[in-house]
From TrEMBL, chain A:
Protein name in UniProt: Oxidoreductase
Transmembrane segments: none
PROSITE patterns associated with the record: TAT
PANTHER family according to UniProt: ALDEHYDE DEHYDROGENASE (PTHR47495)
InterPro entries from the UniProt entry: Ald_Oxase/Xan_DH_a/b, AldOxase/xan_DH_MoCoBD1, AldOxase/xan_DH_MoCoBD2, AldOxase/xan_DH_Mopterin-bd_sf, N-heterocyclic_Hydroxylase, OxRdtase_Mopterin-bd_su_IorB, TAT_signal
GO molecular function term, any single one: oxidoreductase activity
Organism ancestry: Bacteria, Pseudomonadati, Pseudomonadota, Alphaproteobacteria, Hyphomicrobiales
Chain ranges of the Aldehyde oxidase/xanthine dehydrogenase a/b hammerhead domain: 219-297
UniProtKB/TrEMBL annotation, chain B:
Species per Swiss-Prot/TrEMBL record: Salinarimonas ramus
Pfam families linked to this entry: Fer2, Fer2_2
A molecular-function term among this protein's GO annotations: metal ion binding
Domain of life: Bacteria
UniProt KW Chaperone keyword: no
InterPro entries in the cross-refs: 2Fe-2S-bd, 2Fe-2S-bd_dom_sf, 2Fe-2S_ferredoxin-like_sf, 2Fe-2S_ferredoxin-type, 2Fe2S_fd_BS, Beta-grasp_dom_sf, Diverse_Oxidoreductases
Protein name: (2Fe-2S)-binding protein
2Fe-2S ferredoxin-type domain sequence ranges: 1-76
Keyword Repressor found: no
Length: 733, 151
């Protein structure tokens, strides 16, 4: 089901093919040039980039231009950014632009950065759509011009298009796009339409292009996954095991079944589901449920033991992820060495909208699901496998996500698979709307891994880094998932070492090893993935080395960076905008700096901190970014501001801990995201660039923690390496 | 049967009086603009107005609104609501947007009480509304903008 953000999801989402075609979509399909939208998903493995770009652009008789957005919008603004590419090349007026989320169809809507998989992540949405959607817009423009020229009997070369109007100056003819949509649809799609030169852009890189999703998100009309209402649907909540790896031993559902509104209680692979007529009844039914769990094969360690076991794997040789020169020899000959350890806790994504999903059996025997799907291809295949059908018989409707930060991109498709299991266990008699409470969401795992770093660096007499030995212990995110083959090479999970493998600094000899831990806690990518810990380990150690060498942290970094590099450029800019004159004199106030490249984007930050007692406050962050062509400067600023707000709590306090295997932090009173009163003033400076656009959803996260930690050192003289920064622990040691 | 005013109209819901107002609105009144975030009044995504003042609907039993007037994001109107929504639009405050119904209802509550809030007033009114996307800087600016619009 495609829907326009301007109109809420139809109250009765069609469960039949006929219903879908009758529901206002008919017109759109008829005019979708190329007609590729209606195509069924092809099998994974037969990837072929779409030849007809207009699977992405639909022009309606009312002149509206709807861009089919193949990515999940979890807040990062793709539902504005992708239409920007089309609008610019099409010379549309911004007020004409609409968007609709694409159906699951990997053959047409694959992420071109990933291969034959439709999905969103790794800050690739803008980068992989850049040429695809510019070409789609340019092709559509060329076809409209051809159609107009034919209709008016004038040469194409005499036709101009501007702000959504097609004109022929000499004859005074003028029309909107809608007038020629039908005729244009019959024309061949130009394979290589001419694209604008950067100087001709009217929206790309310009200020004043408002987000298309703002209106519906300010009046309550935006439809999120949890807002889906399917006729006859029942709401399910699930009693999950209290420990990772535990299973149901015995269920007494009598009291639960007696709760008014409860329709069924069924056992599924992930627990026991209570199915009821509304959410509250399902929750009350679950409260009344008695389940005994079999913990025999469950994870029962506490956080302290997990950290100790992670340290213990350093005793065994790791897998080499990078080696250059003789690092051990260089360190042995160094004038001075510094060895540090950092411990990084599990982190929950804690999206504002907890995980949920809805699924129904269609009259034609296929299935239809609604949710904030982030890897549609995997979600579709997972549902198909559970229901015993083929992926093409599973229709997915992607809706707005109330945040993700990586959580909705699950290789095991956990939440929609759970909904499918409930549908199956209840005999497919009613659509199932699965709701996770906050406690369910917090306890379900899929955390940023618990990681321990040990780094030893050696300086020569001149303060140059002659050797660097870096060891990382933690659980691989990718091992045992469908992405293993794609991302792992030579036994190394690239997401464990990203940010530490390629370093921008001049370092004599260097060795990086990974050491896998074994645990049952599910781990997952979490906004900026491996960079969340590698950047912190590196950028705090560089700061220590600068201090040891008696150098200013900015000057020291610049001396190690290649002249003319993007890192040097953003660092200089951030220092200049912040009025950098050194880290400060202490007395509870300090400044820190960091620089890091991730997802193709270079970021530098200067943090000001104030330390009072054990409390760390961060009044100001100055940030410089180079993310290629800045497609929408205001969205870039918003992503950087938001990244600071998102990441700040992980610096100050956020962590998921286990007590005898059970998750301790189960709601937002104990796992506490950043609040309004804590938000720093964030100043964002975007460097001009002609590089293709790179990521912006994640790259401003990794630099925050080290900038603040380095500022805390400047303020207090205390080196807090592990996260969250805990001054009470530092002083007690 | 619980009877109350809902967005200016008479409403009557025949459901468990212990049901939180949030779930009554979402599952029985068809108003999904009010969001579920935590269920324990920690995040503010469920904020609605009871007789004009912001409350957390996730911890307010339906029985407590009997005879009262409830306003949700779908029904809130008037000069303050218009100023706040306009400021939110002009500054493109939203990212994922899930918390924004609650943010806007809290901001309208604040500016209804005082159209020229101090910084302490703003913090007191907004610190209970979490935004995981970290849009706080723009929320602050939008409240200031709305305050200016209200003169």
């Amino acid at each position: 089901m495609l829907f326009s953000p301007a109109s809420p999801l139809p109250a009765s989402p069609a469960l039949t093919r006929r219903g879908v075609l009758a529901g206002g979509l008919t017109l759109g399909l008829a005019l979708a040039l190329g007609g590729k939208r209606a195509r069924a998903a092809g099998p994974v493995g037969t990837f072929d980039p779409p030849a007809t770009p207009n699977a992405f652009v639909t022009i309606a008789p009312d002149d509206s231009v709807t861009v089919t957005v193949k990515h999940l919008d979890m807040g990062q603004g793709v539902s504005t950014g992708l239409p920007t590419f089309v609008a610019d090349e099409l010379d549309a007026d911004w007020s004409q632009m609409r968007f609709a989320f694409a159906p699951a169809d990997a053959a047409t809507y694959a992420n071109l950065a990933w291969g034959p998989v439709q999905g969103t992540g790794g800050s690739t949405a803008t980068a992989n759509s850049w040429m695809q959607l510019r070409k789609a817009g340019a092709a559509m423009r060329a076809m409209l011009v051809s159609a107009a020229a034919a209709e008016w009997g004038v040469p194409e070369s005499e036709i101009t298009v501007a702000r959504g109007r097609i004109r022929h100056e000499a004859s005074g003819r003028e029309a909107g796009f809608g007038a020629f949509a039908q005729a244009a649809a019959a024309l061949p799609v130009p394979a290589e339409p001419r694209l604008k030169a950067p100087a001709q852009w009217i929206y790309i890189g310009k200020e004043g292009v408002p987000r298309l999703d703002t209106p519906s998100k300010t009046d309550g009309s935006a439809t999120y996954s949890l807002d889906v209402r399917v006729p006859g649907m029942l709401t399910a909540v699930v009693a999950h095991p209290p420990l990772f790896g535990a299973r149901v031993a015995r269920v007494d559902a009598e009291a639960a079944r007696a709760v008014p509104g409860v329709e069924d209680v069924v056992e599924i692979p992930t627990g026991v589901a209570v199915v009821a007529r509304d959410t509250w009844s399902a929750m009350k039914g679950r409260d009344a449920l008695v389940v005994e769990w079999d913990d025999a094969r469950a994870e029962t360690r506490s956080t302290q033991a997990l950290v100790a076991d992670a340290r213990a794997v350093f005793e065994r040789p790791g897998t080499t992820a990078f080696a250059s020169g003789d690092a051990a020899g260089a360190l042995a000959g160094a004038a001075r060495t510094i060895e540090v350890e950092h411990v990084f806790p599990y982190l929950a994504h804690a999206t504002m909208e907890p995980m949920n999903g809805t699924i129904a059996r269609r009259e034609d025997g296929g299935y239809e699901a609604w949710g904030a799907f982030q890897i549609q291809t995997i979600d579709q295949a997972s549902v198909a496998a559970i229901m015993g059908t083929t992926p093409d018989r599973v229709r997915l409707n992607t809706l707005f996500a109330g945040g993700s930060f990586g959580r909705r991109a699950v290789p095991g498709a956990d939440w929609i698979s759970e909904a499918a299991h409930i549908l199956k266990a209840t005999g497919e008699r009613a659509p199932i709307h699965l709701v996770w409470t906050r406690e369910d969401d917090m306890r379900a795992g899929h955390y940023r891994p618990l990681v321990v770093h040990r780094v030893r660096a050696g300086l020569d007499d001149a303060g140059r880094i002659v050797g660097w030995e870096h060891r990382i212990a933690g659980k691989s995110i990718m091992k045992g998932t469908p992405f293993e083959a794609l991302i792992m090479a030579d036994g190394v999970d690239a997401t464990s070492v990203e940010g530490a493998r390629a370093m921008p600094y001049a370092i004599g000899a260097r060795r990086l090893t990974v050491h896998d831990t074994r645990e049952l806690v599910p781990v997952l990518w979490w906004r900026s993935v491996g960079h969340t810990h590698t950047a912190h380990a590196i950028e705090t150690l560089i700061d220590e080395l600068a201090h040891a060498a008696g150098r200013d942290p900015v000057d020291y970094r610049l001396s190690l960076l290649e002249e003319g590099s993007r890192e040097a450029a953003v660092l200089r800019r951030a220092a200049e905008e912040a009025g950098w004159s050194g880290p400060g004199e202490g007395n509870g106030r300090g400044r820190g700096v960091s620089v890091h490249t991730s997802f193709g984007t270079a970021v530098a930050m200067v943090a000001d901190v104030v330390v009072e007692g054990e409390e760390i406050r961060v009044p100001r962050i100055v940030c410089a970014v180079e993310c290629g062509v800045p497609v929408n400067p205001d969205v870039i600023r918003a992503q950087v501001e938001g990244s600071v707000g998102f990441a700040l709590a992980t610096v100050l306090r956020e962590q998921v801990t286990l007590a005898d295997g059970a998750v301790v932090e189960t709601n937002l009173d104990t796992y506490r995201p950043t609040r309004f009163s804590e938000m720093p003033r964030v100043e964002v400076h975007i460097l001009p660039s002609e590089n293709p656009p790179s990521g912006i959803g994640e790259p401003a996260v990794p630099t925050l923690a080290p900038a603040i930690a380095n500022a805390v050192f400047a303020a207090t003289g205390e080196r807090l390496r592990s996260l969250p920064l805990d001054l009470s622990a530092g002083r007690g040691a | 049967m619980i009877r109350f005013q809902l967005n200016g109209r008479e409403a009557a819901l025949d459901v468990d009086p212990d049901m939180p107002l949030l779930w009554a609105l979402r599952d029985h009144a068809g108003l999904t603009g009010t969001k579920f975030g935590c269920g324990i009044a920690q995040c503010g995504a469920c904020t609605v107005h009871l007789d004009g003042a912001p409350i957390r609907s996730c911890v307010t039993p339906l029985s407590a609104v009997d005879g009262a007037s409830i306003t949700t994001i779908e029904g809130v109107e008037g000069p303050v609501a218009e100023a706040v929504k306009a400021a939110w639009r002009d500054l493109d405050v939203v990212q994922c947007g899930y918390c924004q119904s609650g943010q806007i209802m809290s901001a309208i509550g604040l500016l209804t009480q005082t159209s020229a809030p101090t910084d302490a007033d703003v913090v007191a009114a907004m610190d209970g509304n979490l935004c995981r996307c970290g849009t706080y800087q723009r929320i602050r600016a939008a409240i200031a903008d709305a305050s200016t619009r209200l003169g």
